[in-house]
Write a structure and sequence with these properties.
Layout: H1 2-15, E1 45-60, E2 63-68, E3 78-83, E4 87-92, E5 98-103, E6 124-129, H2 133-136, E7 138-145, E8 164-172, E9 184-196, E10 206-208, E11 214-217, E12 246-250, E13 280-283, E14 290-293, E15 300-304, E16 310-316, E17 327-328, E18 331-334, E19 342-344, E20 360-363, E21 370-375, E22 388-395, E23 400-406, E24 412-417, E25 426-432, E26 438-443, E27 453-460, E28 466-472, E29 485-492, E30 499-506, E31 511-518, E32 527-537, E33 541-548, H3 562-570, E34 574-580, E35 588-591
Parallel strand pairs: 1-24, 2-25
Antiparallel strand pairs: 1-27, 2-3, 3-4, 4-5, 6-7, 7-8, 8-9, 10-11, 11-12, 12-13, 14-15, 15-16, 16-20, 17-18, 18-19, 21-22, 22-23, 23-24, 25-26, 26-27, 28-29, 29-30, 30-33, 31-32, 31-34, 34-35
Amino acid sequence: MKSLDVARRRFLALLGVGGALVTGVGTVGATQPTRLEDPIPEPIEAGPQTVRLEMVASGLTAPNWGTAVPGCDGLANRLVLTDQTGILWSVDTETGEKSVFADLSELLVSLGVGGPGTFDERGLLGVAFHPEYATNGFLYTYTSEPVGGSADFSTMPAGESPNHQSVVREWQVPEPCNPDAVVDPTTAREVLRVDEPQFNHNAGCLNFGPDEKLYISLGDGGAADDQGVGHVPGGNGQDPGNVLGTILRIDPRGTDAANGEYGVPADNPFVDRDGFVDEIYAYGFRNPFRFSFDARTGELYAADVGQNDVEEVDIVVAGGNYGWREKEGPLCFDPNGAEPGFVFECESGDAPADVIDPVAAYDHDEGIAVVGGFVSRGDELPALRGRYIFGDYFHPASGGGRLFYLERNDRIREFRLAGLDALGFAVLGFGQDAGGDLYVLGNQTGVPFGDTGFVMRIASATGARQFRAHLSGDEEVPPVETNAQGQATVAFDDDRTEFDYTLLVANVDDVVAAHIHCAPDGVNGPVGVTLFEGGPVSPDGVLAEATVTEPDADNGCGWESIADVYDAVQRGEAYVNVHTLGTPSGEIRGQLR
């Protein structure tokens, strides 16, 4: 997991942890509170729920949101994904077939804050279908764009330019329920445009609520500690006179807003209130990158990415103040001038009395950036129906992201993963299909480059026919020092007469072969099935994918049928090995589980 670890370090540096990015204001006061070294001591433990992850589609870059197409019965198996690089993908969740629904890449700023291959929080961040999409064909997107027009909302001082602008656009699809229909690029209409002071904390989520209004999440503007150029005194999060650090609520088909391109609902909580923006539904957020509505109850769950210490999940209500930057999670926050901010125990008067604390929170012993998901309402996980499922981008101790759920008492629990000790990839987002079942979206690098991105169904652990292996040099016997890594997915048919496989790799050079070998964990064994041969090739994504109907002839494992392969995998006696010119015996390996 060395390349993901590199991405993590870049991520932390760009967020300003350790003082890397922040240009602070003010000075530390003489009565500075006491920093909490372990803000939330209770660890996140594994709960009783075990799931397996089924590969649905691969070959993406950095998918971060997945949503169903409303009102079209013929598209019930369709999931539309936002890929950070600007592609809207349409994916058939049964076949895995994917196609481009819209290409918005030319609208975006150039991604990679430190250059190609580096971390970024900008891009195509959100999509939402109008509730009447089946008849009107309207959908909406959220994109990070170069400064290209007058902003409807800005905190930038005179003479200062924003890093970029967040833009919400309306598009239309002719014949919206036609499976082959795509977005008509000539129908674009700009709904609103917001100046973003820095590259990060862009939020970017779009959702229509049960009231059929469009909700839009915005971060505090970036940098760190909600201070610096483009951040008002006291922080944007606690200033409802600007839209940064808020969730907005609008009518995208209305016309009574100042720009004439949308409507402001008359029942918004701050309409006509002095010092408040009429469009604000709730405020006091740092970076509510992902929020969603419970399809049954209508409750709004928001996952607000923390600063240096605490990640949180909120249930958002009209007019609510969620505390940032007076608070980070349930604790009080000191922006600490030019040094990194920190949390401390609140005492009377330390924070506004109206602040609503999160329903769940964890500290950075458990992860570094919460990624919001959905309340499960599908049939795939009946024991978790009504439970909020979410995750974390990267857990330093495990070398990848994590999958969580809330118990009925809102205690955070981690999923047990059938056959796996850890995810082994960066969690970038979640999706929910028309039936309420859930998907996790991720990639191998944590950055918006390459094609190691994928979507996996979060499925019941019973009756497993699909197996995975995380590939790394650490699993080789003996271990190999390498930045290369990968994922292999093998899915058997019900009769065990064939299997489909997908083999993803990243940061690897001169691949010449890949095989399934037979041997238990920690032991080298002979080749049983060839997955790839040829090259040398240096892919950053799909190395090979195909259907296998028989093992290699005269293979060293004695496998005569696909059923023999299945039995070996079930016993934990099969592994995937990727061979390169530099390491002919195998550079990355992982046991199929």
